[in-house]
Amino acid sequence: MIRQLIKAAVLVAAFAGASAHADTFDFSYTFNGAGGLGGTITGSFQGTQNGQLVTDVSNVSVVFDGTAFNGPLFSGTSNSDGSLSYGPSAAVISFNASQNNFVFADSNDPQANGVTTAFLFNSTAGFTNAFNTNLLANNTDGDDATGQWSLKEATPVPVPAALPLLASGLGFLFAKRRRRAA
Amino acid sequence: MQNSRDVSGAPARNTLLSAAIAAALLGAAASQAAPVTVRGTVAGSLFTPPVNASNPANSTASTTVASTYAGAKVCFDLNNNGACDANEPNTLTSATGSFQLTSATNANVIAEISTSATNNGSPAAQRLVLRTSAAGITPVSPLVPATITVTPLTTEVVRMMENNEALGTTGGATYANAKASLAQRLGVDPSVVLSNPASVTGAAQKAILAESVVLTNRFGFAAKMVDRADPSPASLKVNPSNPTAIQIPEAQQVAMNVEGIPRYDHIFVIMLENKATSSILNSPFAPHIDAILAANNQFTNYFATGNPSEPNYTALGAGDDFGITNDDQWNCDTTTTVNGVVTPTANYPQDLPLPDKNAPGLQNSPFTTVCNDTPVVNHNIFGTANLFNSATTGGLAWRTYNESMNPGQDARTDSIADTAVTAPDHVYAPGTLAGNITPVGSPTLTLPLPAGLYKTKHNPAMAYQNVRSAPEFKSSNRTLGGGQWDATLLHTSVYSVPAGYNTDQFGSDLSSGDIGALNYVIPDQCDDMHSITVSGTDSATGHSATASDCGGVGSGIDGGNDPAPDDKADNIMARGDSYVQYLVNKIQTSAVWQNQAKREAIVIMFDEGGATFNATAGTTFDKTNSCCGWVPGTSSSNPTNVHPLIESPPGSGNFVPDTTVQNYGAGNHGHGNSIFAVLTNQPNAPKQIKDSDAYSHFSFVRTLQDMFGLSDPEVSASYVNRSKYTESFIAANITNLPEYMGSADTHFDAVRPMSHAYAIASGFSEKQSLDESVINAGTTTNPPGGNAAGTVPPQLGPDGNQTNIWALHP
Fold first, then answer.
1. pLDDT digits over B526-569, tens only?
2. What's the per-residue H, E or C state across B623-648?
3. pLDDT tens by residue, B521-534
4. pLDDT recorded at residue B634
5. Beta strand residue intervals within A65-159, DSSP E
6. Which of A144, A151, A155 to mutate to test the interface with B (most CBs of B within 10 A)?
């Protein structure tokens, strides 16, 4: 009985935690190396998880093969008509990579003018690309979206709204245990 | 919650969508300052060379398939030096040859293919650098890759742009024009010419792959020049004492212009027989050839290498006559008979099936196995490098086109007489044969096909066992139309006519383009000025009579020098002259020749002149009968210490005498000057150029190797036989070349490409063969319009200009 109650409390808390609100996510992508130099892109962003997808992407940071890009990065996506869209709701990022369509770039020009640093992953078109032209030769890479993709929440800590519910559940269990002991 | 996914198994799909994105953004004005991202494939061809064994059972044909290069280093060549430098964005190609790359600025994209890279999974056969033009990259966005390919053909476009080549187009050598010109040259659509060959099909793919093989070899040679730090030709001009090392862009130009001989797509070598220069120049019996000489280019001091025909044709196939001094058939004395037992010698032909008089269809063949020369010389040349094997190893086709063969005959036998095949005598109305005042020929004379119109001694490929054993040998010896008996050749009673037999494959091949890079065009012995006995019955008289224009014996003093200028020895010259005009017209009106994006050339030459070599040793006769790789001296002396040189061990650069060639010193003594004309289809090529430097068949063989990119001037062994005998080679090997130890003129005695690189010294009178200067001087009258023999004056001093006769443009 107690075990069931604990499960219920955790589920309630977890349900509350999975609701739509901004979380921080860590990502990494290691190029397959067969079509390039095999570099690794890591970084983080804030976004809203909805099932397999994360949207409303903001506060992006990117590290190119261990070298952090210092500066603001805009998030966006490439559209089926070839245009680029930037803004919080544009980028689509998925846990299993199959629906990835995002651009992290240091310019939000629709034609990418002025871009010197970017990481792009377009599963639909079938390619990834990362470059930092300021660092030149070994800091560019790309493949056919066939490398190793990883996405996870940066801090899997329950959100504040779920804590009172969990506390009340645990309190109820504690009170019941005391009565039985008495 | 977290997820990690290895997506390496996902297909590289939706390339079309990627392209669509790229295309959609094409119209968007990307900033010039924006980075450029490209993705594509390094592709080409995988060529498996033929195996050219002396036994057909051990020979295999070459194969070519589309391929991709894995592990190639791809970069944006920001400084256009043809190398991926440390600061240039670079990557490696995947197992499928694909790559993706971004650069801050657009530039040519190059692929450095080392021998550690693989070509369709096999180690790359040679290092090479392929390039694609920045002008062919349409920058879309650094975030939307532009799709490109890097292939030998994209490299050729870059090279053409850098050399300002785009024939067949207008507006200069822009990227679009160079691409269009290359497509026109290959006969494929411009939209596919620079594609990955694997994505193209049918005839277009075949043409692209064939070109890819040739270009891969040329660009491999360019990389070789860079790797060994050859001096830059451009730098040499500026700083001869301290030139810089050549780089890929310049090396790729040099690789297309080896020793000053530009690459041609096809050359047609029209072979004529036994006339000295003085016999042709200004002769009323050779008006067409003389007109061609006047309008085009000419080597005026060209020497044969032997006498009679066979040593010359043998030399034209591989730069040596191997001591042959007569016309014995290639299979003679390949058996010995002891006590009635016939035993094959080491030179026994291994051809399969061997032509045999007892075989069906060959009962009447004049095939003989008896050598007549004393001492015996081997006529069946084993295991020797030659132009034909070199061509196929380089991915190129060769042909001999032979007139008046018997339908169904084996090209390894002479043609035979056939009474079922007849032709009327040639009749010349007054005024049509050197001003004849009475008709020449009989309209009632019918001539059965004589024997020996086609002779194996006149086929440059015939002497070589490893050529006769090659899979392509049979199909490469083809028919040549225009003969006197063509109309009834298929009436033959002596052989079974093969289905679909074409008496003029040359004409068909000119239409289809299925010609060789190297084409020896060999008229029959009536149309080549040689002469044979052709007789028939004149129905008007009921008596036997001979043909009007195929009798007599070419003496070397025919034509205008002959005191009886309308005899049949002169008439055959007029006949040959007309046939040359027929051939030239046929070639020049073909689609191949008319396509100026292709580089086409015609050579009109004679196998030999008229000067004899067998004069008394030590006389001046023996000092000017040939040049350029010959054996100075006399055949009568037959020096036994003269041997061909072979590299031992292979690849070492060390040459030793090959003492296995019997009586070698009897050969390569020359037979005087003869006509050598060059015509090209290039509209901007120089015309009416004369090059009076001394050249020989060996020089021509060397020139052909340069023309088709088959050799490396820094590697003597890459040139066949005596074609490698440059001044430096002779000097380096003088202890093994006793024939040159007494040379007083190393330039005259040495081989060089026919590129007009040498300026004859002021005040120097060119050396002439004796039929030009001594033998016949004063012995004949000088008929109107003709030279007396010995009256072609030697040139004094340098040529009027030093323009290369083979040049494509001024």
1. 999 999 999 999 999 999 999 999 975 433 334 444 444 445 56
2. HCCCCCCCCCCCCCCCCCCCCCEEEC
3. 999 999 999 999 99
4. 58
5. 67-68, 74-78, 84-86, 93-94, 101-105, 117-122, 127-132, 140-143, 148-153
6. A144
User: What confidence tens digit (pLDDT) does each residue in B795-806 have?
Assistant: 899 999 999 999
Residues B514, B206: Cα–Cα separation, whole Å = 12
A45: which strand partners? A25
Question: Is B602 exposed, middle or buried (CB count within 10 Å of its CB: 0-12, 13-18, 19+)?
Answer: buried
B694 CB-near residues (< 8 Å, 6+ apart)? B301, B303, B627, B628, B747, B748, B766, B767
Compare all CA atoms of chain A with the CA of B106 and give the residue at the minimum distance: A133
What is the secondary structure of B151-167 as a DSSP string? -HHHHHHHHHHHTT--T
ipTM here: 0.70
Partnered with residue B18 across adjacent β-strands are: none
B616 or B741, greater pLDDT = B741
For strand B477-480 and strand B297-299, is the pairing parallel, antiparallel, or unpaired?
A: unpaired
Test B143 with A105 for CB contact under 8 angstroms: yes
CB contact under 8 A, B5 and A32: no
pLDDT at B11 over 50: no
Say yes or no for a CB contact (<8 Å) between B94 and A34.
yes
What would the two tokens of residue A101 be? 């369509």
- Whether residue B379 contacts residue B328, with contact meaning beta carbons closer than 8 Å, is answered with yes
- The two tokens of residue B336 are 């010995």
Chain B residues touching A82 at Cβ < 8 A: 20-25, 28, 140, 144
Residue pairs spanning A and B at CB distance below 8 A: 184
Query: What are the residues facing A41 on neighbouring strands?
Result: A29, A64
C-alpha B63/C-alpha B51 separation (Å) is 11
- Which residues pair with residue B43 across a beta bridge? B68
Residues of chain A short of pLDDT 50, as ranges, are: 5, 8-19, 136-138, 182
User: Are the C-beta atoms of residues B711 and B258 closer than 8 Å to each other?
Assistant: yes
**Two tokens at B202?**
């049918």
What is the pairing mode between strands B518-522 and B266-272?
parallel
The answer to which of A146-150, B234-238, B624-628 has the lowest mean pLDDT is: B624-628
pLDDT of residue B520: 98
Q: What are residue B601's DSSP bridge partners?
A: B267, B680
* Record: contact B89-A36, CB cut-off 8 A: no
pLDDT band for B352, please (50, 70, 90 cuts): confident
**pLDDT of the residue at B469:** 95
Kindly report the nearest CA distance between residue B40 and chain A, in angstroms: 10
